[in-house]
Specification:
homodimer; Com_YlbF (chains A, B); YheA-like fold; binds calcium ion; mainly alpha; 115 residues
Chain lengths: 115, 115
């Protein structure tokens, strides 16, 4: 008899919340958000990225000026120590989440893989 | 101190594999696949759906003939007891998986929600 699915899911939520990777991310996220200048710089960077992604998806043309503007915003955040640490922490956590998903979805992957 | 993240993920994988929802889905999936006629009908239905989705996403025009063809394939699988049971089981499991994801991703949702 296995543990109840949702009980185990709540345990995983707790383990994720208490993991070093999540705690580092949260700390950096709070630090960046507590710094008005860093917070605005990061928000601006995100908005530029999002805007370019939406244009790409809808097949809209992206001007040279927009590309230059985006490159400058990337350079700005890369030079900001806290923001670049935050982005690295986000990258690490998204890899952890992808691994967790891969583990959990194994039963379905095995089933559909045999089609 | 919380349990290791990956150990808990493997427990969740086990709990999903042993859940009634997954076991029902697997049983129906195997039954449909063991029945050559049902298996072909279902595969044909899937291919038609996938083809329409791809056309929709790429903005390609969908002809009236294609719509009629798709509707007929939907009616065929709906009238097939095993296939319609399989599709209902897939629907149920995808709701379970969505709930699990919602639980596990809560720490991230809380963090980014506070932006
Ligand atoms: Ca802010
Ligand atoms: Ca088959």
């Amino acid at each position: 008899m296995s543990e109840n699915l949702y009980d185990v899911a709540y345990k995983l939520e707790k383990a994720l919340r208490e993991s070093d990777d999540f705690k580092s991310l949260k700390r950096l996220y709070d630090e960046v958000n507590a710094d008005e200048q860093a917070s605005k710089m990061f928000e601006n960077f995100r908005n530029i990225q999002l805007n370019l992604q939406q244009k790409q998806m809808s097949g809209e043309e992206i001007t040279e000026e927009e590309i230059n503007h985006a490159q400058k915003s990337v350079q700005l955040v890369q030079q900001h120590e806290k923001i670049s640490q935050l982005m690295a922490a986000e990258q690490r956590l998204s890899m952890v989440v992808a691994e967790l998903n891969k583990i959990i979805m194994k039963p379905l992957e095995e089933m559909y893989g045999s089609l």
